Amino acid sequence: MSRYQWVPSWAELPPAPHGWMHSGIALLDGEIVVAHAGEPTLLWYGEGGDLRRSVPVPGLLELHGFEVVPDGLWIADIGSKRRPRGAEFETRRGDGRVVLVDRDGAIRRELHDPGRGWSPTAVAHVAESGDLWVADGYGQQLVHRFDAAGRHLLTLSGEEGAGRFSCPHCVAVDRRRGDPELYVADRANGRLQVYDLEGRFRRVAGAGVLVTPADLAFVREQLVLTDYTRARLTILDGDDTFVEHVGEDPQAPTRDGWPNARDQRGDLVPPPLVPGRFNSPHTLAADGGGDLYVTEWLLGGRLTKWQRVAA
C-alpha cells in the first residue's frame, strides 16, 4: 500500500490555457503558495484548496523556486518564460533574479549574480547562519553560497570524484539528523549530491533509482522527490534507499508534445490529465502532517494534494 493517496478535486488554478506552468511551491503561514501559469503572480491557497488571493510580483518573469524564511519568501526567477506558438513554442527572455518578497509581493532584497549571467532555479536557507544556497540550474550549472548579508562566499561545481553538476535544479537543507546537510538535485545526471553546510562533499545518493530529480522535500524520516520525466514521485528512506514510487503514469512521457499534447493540426495544447496519476511533476512541498502539494510543468498547470496515510 502506498504511503500517499491522491485527494480528488482538491484545488483549481485560474484558467491559463496559453500559460506554461513552471512554478515553485511553498507553505507559508498555513497557506500554499504557487505561481500563476501565465503571469508573474503569486496564488495563495488555503489547505482546503480555496484560492484566497492573487498577488502580482512586478519585475519578475518566471517564479520558479521558492524558499520560506521568517521575513518572507525567496523566489528564484529563471529569467525566461515559454509560451506555445502553434506546433512549437517561443521563449521570452530577461534576467535571472533571486529576490525576497513580502506577503504583498514587494521586493525587499535581492542577491546579485556572482558569475556571467545566471538562470537560478532554487534557493535553500540555513536558519542557524542565515546563509543562502542558490542553484544556478539553467545557467552555469553551479551552486552558490551567500551569507546573511548577501555576500557571495563559495561556488560548487560538483565533486571532482563524482563529476560536475548537470542542471542542479534544486537545493534543500536536510534536518532529519543532528548534523544538517545540503542536498543538490543533480537532475540531468539522475542523482543527488550531498554536502555539509560548509560545502564539503559527502556522498552521491539516488543513482540508479532517480532519472530526473527536479525537487525534493523532507517528510519526517523520508525524502520525497519529483522525478518529472518519469511522471512520478520517488520516496527514499533516511538512508537514501528506495521505498516506493507514487502516482506514476508510464504512458504520459511517451505522448507526442509531452509535457503537453498536440491537436489535429499538430499545435501544442494542454494534455489530458489522469486523476491520481502524474503527467510532469515539477515542485512539491509538505505540510506539518506530511501531506504533499505538487505542481506540474504543463500548459495551464496542475496543482494536486496527496494525503499521507498510515504505512
Structure description:
The structure is a single chain. By secondary structure, this protein is mainly beta. The chain has a single domain (about 5-310), classed as Neuraminidase (6 Propeller). It has no helices and 30 strands. The chain has a four-stranded antiparallel β-sheet with strand order 1-30-28-27, with no helix packed on it. It has a four-stranded antiparallel β-sheet with strand order 3-4-5-6, with no helix packed on it. It has a four-stranded antiparallel β-sheet with strand order 7-8-11-12, with no helix packed on it. Strand 15 (about 140-145) and strand 16 form a beta hairpin. It is globular. The relative contact order is 0.16.
Task: List the defining traits of the structure above.
four-stranded antiparallel β-sheet, 311 residues
Give a count of the beta strands, DSSP E runs of length 2 or more. Answer: 30
Question: Cα distance, first to last residue?
Answer: 7 Å
Low-pLDDT runs: none
Give the number of helices.
0
The structure class reads: mainly beta
Taking Cα atoms only, what radius of gyration do you get, to the nearest Å?
18 Å
- State the share of residues found in helices, binned by percent: under 10%
Question: What is the name of the CATH architecture?
Answer: 6 Propeller
Beta content comes to over 45%
Largest sheet composition: 4 strands, antiparallel
> What is the CATH superfamily?
TolB, C-terminal domain
CATH topology: Neuraminidase
Write down the secondary-structure element order. EEEEEEEEEEEEEEEEEEEEEEEEEEEEEE
CATH top level is: Mainly Beta
Mean of all residue-level pLDDT scores: 96
Note the overall shape: globular
Number of domains: 1
Widest β-sheet, arrangement of strands: 1-30-28-27
